[in-house]
Design brief:
The chain is α/β, with parallel strands linked by helices and 387 residues long. It has 14 helices and 13 strands. α6 packs across α10 (246-260). The relative contact order is 0.18. The structure holds 4'-deoxy-4'-aminopyridoxal-5'-phosphate and glutamine. This is Aminotransferase.
């Protein structure tokens, strides 16, 4: 009874790991969701909005005030100028924004280039549009974008490429040079670039996140997807947005209209408050996460995992090869059942995990210090047990 499109997709790795960890004494470093509170100011704004009866539909593409707030925030922090009403769409998380963006541009039979490891929604989104994902594998441990690999993946049917920086799960921020490679590639082959920038405010050690949109020629073919989940620690609010050139933005707004008729009105009001946070808010959040990253990084390295220091985002990718497990799933399962720590197997970010890749697990550090320290303490038992 199911459509072919639905039969072509599967649930992502996160639910399966969560199911293994449920009702067990397990420290959850699997999900990219904070276990610390969201800012009081915006929680109060949400409560006030409900009490003030902002409880009916908001305008479908998003509250005007919110779209103006998002445009002002982007202009202030990045110097990029967008027309709020024709270029910005408020969506149900970046997740819906991505789906709307793909629906806006992908015809059946079109190919879309995805860089693996690829965040888990890109493949299903492309397949649900009737498109074909074409994979370019980034090589560990650097996971750098390489021109020759892109060129080998392109065909006359290629319509778009999606990139994600800061990157889930590697923590990489693509350099200006890598973005130039992407831009030249898009211009040469007339492709649209979707850039998933949900971790844009979570950058560490003073590393600056460069923007594809700013490279000459890219402003007319770049769709930016971002959101409130990570920047304001409200993953459950399901608030994201898409910023695009007017023509593409109209396509996104059409798709969004029929997918959702808009996102929760009172939460959009609270997001207006969020969009007006001073620069200090972003500095403090990034500093807090950098400190949590450092505690987890140090702990994982002491246990014996090989880890690159992530430049941004929520995650550390740990090479666990030396512990002797054949595959990441059995190690993840062992950690949940015997050690009491949940992490995500990297193979969940691949169509087919390369046989010669190391065994990697992804650990989230968007957690309270105590959560991370307890997890690290437990992981020490892995060292004792295996060595
Ligand atoms: N893109 C990436 C790379 C993510 O990691 C996530 C969430 N973890 C999303 C998109 C979706 O974010 P949202 O909660 O805004 O739907
Ligand atoms: N994006 C979250 C992560 O990478 C997962 C979101 C979800 O599907 N539960 O951990």
């Amino acid at each position: 009874m199911l459509s072919q499109r639905i039969q072509n997709i599967d649930f992502p790795v996160f639910g399966r790991i969560a199911a293994l960890a449920r009702n067990k004494d397990v420290i959850r470093l699997d999900a990219g969701e904070p276990d610390f509170p969201a800012p009081a100011l915006i929680k109060d704004a949400a409560v006030a909005a409900i009490a003030a009866d902002y409880n009916q539909y908001a305008p479908v593409p998003g509250l005007e005030e919110l779209r103006r707030g998002i445009a002002a925030k982007i202009q202030e922090r990045e110097g990029m100028v967008f027309e709020p009403l024709s270029q910005i769409t408020v969506c149900c998380g970046a997740t819906e924004g991505l789906a709307a963006a793909f629906l806006a541009i992908v015809n059946p039979g079109d190919e879309v280039i995805l860089l693996e490891p690829a965040y888990t929604v890109y493949t299903p989104d492309v397949l649900l549009c009737g498109g074909s994902p074409v994979y370019v594998k980034l090589s560990p441990p650097e996971f750098r974008i390489e021109r020759h690999k892109l060129e080998a993946a392109v065909s006359p049917r290629t319509k778009a490429i999606i990139i994600n920086s800061p990157h889930n799960p590697t923590g990489r921020i693509y350099s200006q040079e890598e973005l130039s490679v992407i831009a030249e590639f898009c211009l040469r082959h007339n492709l649209i670039a979707i850039t998933d920038e949900v971790y844009e405010e979570l950058t560490y050690d003073g590393v600056k996140m460069e923007r594809l949109w700013k490279i000459p020629g890219m402003e007319e073919r770049t769709i930016i997807v971002s959101g409130f989940s990570k920047t304001f620690s409200v993953t459950g609010w399901r608030l994201g947005y898409v910023v695009a050139p007017v023509l593409l933005s109209r396509g996104v707004q059409l798709a969004h209209n029929y997918l959702t008729v808009g996102t929760a009105a009172p939460l959009q009001r609270a997001a207006v408050t969020a969009s007006q946070m001073p620069a200090d808010y972003y500095r403090t959040l990034a500093a807090l996460l950098q400190q949590r990253r450092d505690i987890l990084l140090d702990g994982l390295r002491k246990v014996g995992f090989e880890c690159r220091c992530p430049q941004g985002g929520y995650f550390i990718l740990a090479d666990c090869s030396r512990f002797g497990w054949q595959d990441d799933w059995s190690l993840a399962q062992y950690l949940i059942e015997e050690i009491g720590v949940a992490a995500i197997p990297l193979s969940g970010f691949y169509k087919k995990y390369p046989a010669d890749n190391p065994v990697f697990l992804r650990f989230a550090f968007c957690k309270r210090e105590e959560t991370i320290r307890t997890a690290v303490e437990r992981l020490q038992r892995l060292k004792l047990k295996v060595k």
